[in-house]
Amino acid sequence: MIRKNNLIIGTANFFTPYGVNSTWVSVIKKKKIFLYLQKNKINFFDISDSYGNIAKNDFFLKKKFKKIIFKFRLKNINNFTNDINKTIKNLNINKIYCFMFHNEKELFSKKGKIILQKANEYKIKKKFFQNIGVSIYSVNTLKKIIKNKIKIDIVQLPLNILNQSFSKEILHKANLRGIKIHARSIFLQGLLLNKTSKIDNKVFKRKLSDLDFLTKKNKTSRLYECLNFISSFKYIDKIVIGVDNMFQLKDILNALKIKRRKYDYSKFAIKNENLIDPRKWKKKH
């Protein structure tokens, strides 16, 4: 069961235009979002050193109630201790909730292994961060982490009605290894909620049409079905969501209050990764 305390707010569009629609949240909208988050005691945020200048004087950075999942690129880390100290100071926090590799390939690189070892040393000392994580796309990467007993606390992965690559069985195995799962892209950068798709593909459009048929039949909404699908996974610890304004956030919180129901969504799965992986979408999309 997904509740509001399971939510992580994605901040890519807080700092730079992001996603299929290249949306960016204005300062005014951002203030309204944060006041609403504070009221609802939602304080987890997904941040990256790739999201532009997060050290600038921004409303977000002035708020101290936040818990940060900080995604980093290896190219942006030169002096580990100094760089982490600087990040914590810039984000106006005492400790990072999760220090996360932004790229699954970097985790297994020579420098990545060194950073992972150093990060685990600091975690043991209870310094800088509480958890170490990695953002992945591939099921094989998760299998490799489990098989090789790589010291990772949290794995963030894409999961939605169309992208069902990660089975409940593999997530169960991760859970047995003590790995927490954070699901992202549950709305596929908003495409699953938009009435008009920006991906011009018959398979994709047919799946959305089928989804609309389901919502009409059950008198629900795409938003509800997307959240209901995620709720069917027992081992999802948190989900990452992105919003453009306070009204979208309210809609999500209201949808979470609706009773969940059992449903087999397997018929909506798309195996063509070019259609469910944003990295492989053509630029015009």
Describe the structure.
This protein is of the alpha/beta class. The protein has one domain (4-280): TIM Barrel. The protein contains 12 helices and 8 strands. It has helices at residues 12-15, 27-39, 59-62, 80-91, 104-107, 110-124, 139-147, 168-176, 202-218, 222-231, 246-257, 273-276; strands spanning 7-10, 44-48, 67-72, 96-101, 129-135, 154-158, 180-184, 236-241. It has an 8-stranded parallel β-barrel with strand order 1-2-3-4-5-6-7-8.
What's the layout of helices and strands?
Blueprint: E1 7-10, H1 12-15, H2 27-39, E2 44-48, H3 59-62, E3 67-72, H4 80-91, E4 96-101, H5 104-107, H6 110-124, E5 129-135, H7 139-147, E6 154-158, H8 168-176, E7 180-184, H9 202-218, H10 222-231, E8 236-241, H11 246-257, H12 273-276
Parallel strand pairs: 1-2, 1-8, 2-3, 3-4, 4-5, 5-6, 6-7, 7-8
Keywords, separated by commas or semicolons:
285 residues; alpha/beta; TIM Barrel; eight-stranded parallel barrel; 8 strands
